[in-house]
Write a structure and sequence with these properties.
Layout (H helix, E strand, L loop, with lengths): L5 H12 L5 H17 L3 H86 L3 H69 L4
Helix pairs in contact: 2-3
Amino acid sequence: MGPVTDDEIIRKRLLIDGDGAGDDRRINLLVKSFIKWCNSGSQEEDYSQYQRMLSTLSQCEFSMSKTLLVYDMNLREVKNYEKTYKEIERNIAEAHEKIAECKKQILQAKRTRKYHQEYDALAKVIHRHPDRRETLKKLEALGKELEHLSHIKESVEGNLEWKRKQFYVLLSILYELKQTLGNDEKPSKVEAAQETSMETDPKP
């Protein structure tokens, strides 16, 4: 075992001394007084030494009582600190839960806001267009008008076909008339040519 250093001696004295009130010195003084009292031969000196030992012992007891009180107080403080620490941990856990719940509420609020914006946009689009009943009425009216126009178209096409046939008949008649007129003009031309030749021939 190596030599004991001054720091170790001071550390041990501080541990023995407790709160630094000189308990170790009092105990050493009490031991010395007790030895001196045992070796003393005078009754007066024995009584005086006895009183000093009692006084020193009372001081040691008082210091020990004070140390015990401080120790009990420290234990209570430790318990209070542990209780406070647990309460702080519980509050921190509750705060984390509240923060998580607030985050959920914020996300829900964002989704709700998005839904409201989409609903408003859709409502604006719907308001710009007529309602279903009005649209059905317009479609029904357009259907009737389309049917009427179809009938008119069929009538016009029928009339056009009839006029086309009449036109073809007229063309046929004109063609036949032209042919007839052409045949009538040919003899007239022959007779005119003969008359012309006769007029140009000299008489004998």
